[in-house]
């Protein structure tokens, strides 16, 4: 699976032109507060993207109704856009986000990226059902094999079942001992 890395890999506006959290602020977001929380870093990039989209929308409105009097606001908005794009670039360096190429291709085709999520989920469900069917077939085969072996070699099968139950009991005891320790180490008591 091919992916794009980085927080500001792609920016796509909606078809209805709606922009949320638009601000007229020309100052970029403060990048001096560094956080180790990846969610907070991603939220900062998302906020910067929203501010950039707002600035682009304002720039579009200014250009579409341009006259001599709107030259200064146009320059201010262009400067604001450059500052926010620089800020977005700096913020995205702190984010490690992987975006599958299929999602970007869907966005380029004008489709909803949730389709990709739905397709991946449906594929996982189908593969899970196939794997479950194989596991059920092996269980059925094991049961049938033990029944056949029990008829031909009853003493050996009884010995096998005893060893199997002892092994299962030991595995259960080890799992309980491991779950009781806070660091996950296995504590085994010597039996002498």
UniProtKB/TrEMBL annotation:
Gene Ontology CC terms: mediator complex
Top-level taxon of the source organism: Eukaryota
Keyword annotations from UniProtKB, A to Z: Activator, Nucleus, Transcription, Transcription regulation
GO process terms (BP): positive regulation of transcription by RNA polymerase II
A molecular-function term among this protein's GO annotations: transcription coregulator activity
Subcellular location as annotated: Nucleus
InterPro entries: Mediator_Med10
Region of interest (Disordered), residue spans: 1-40
Compositional bias segments (type: Low complexity): 20-36
Family, similarity comment: Belongs to the Mediator complex subunit 10 family.
Entries under PANTHER family matching the protein: MEDIATOR OF RNA POLYMERASE II TRANSCRIPTION SUBUNIT 10, MEDIATOR OF RNA POLYMERASE II TRANSCRIPTION SUBUNIT 10A-RELATED
Quaternary structure and partners: Component of the Mediator complex.
Its biological purpose: Component of the Mediator complex, a coactivator involved in the regulated transcription of nearly all RNA polymerase II-dependent genes. Mediator functions as a bridge to convey information from gene-specific regulatory proteins to the basal RNA polymerase II transcription machinery. Mediator is recruited to promoters by direct interactions with regulatory proteins and serves as a scaffold for the assembly of a functional preinitiation complex with RNA polymerase II and the general transcription factors.
Protein name: Mediator of RNA polymerase II transcription subunit 10
Organism (species): Heracleum sosnowskyi
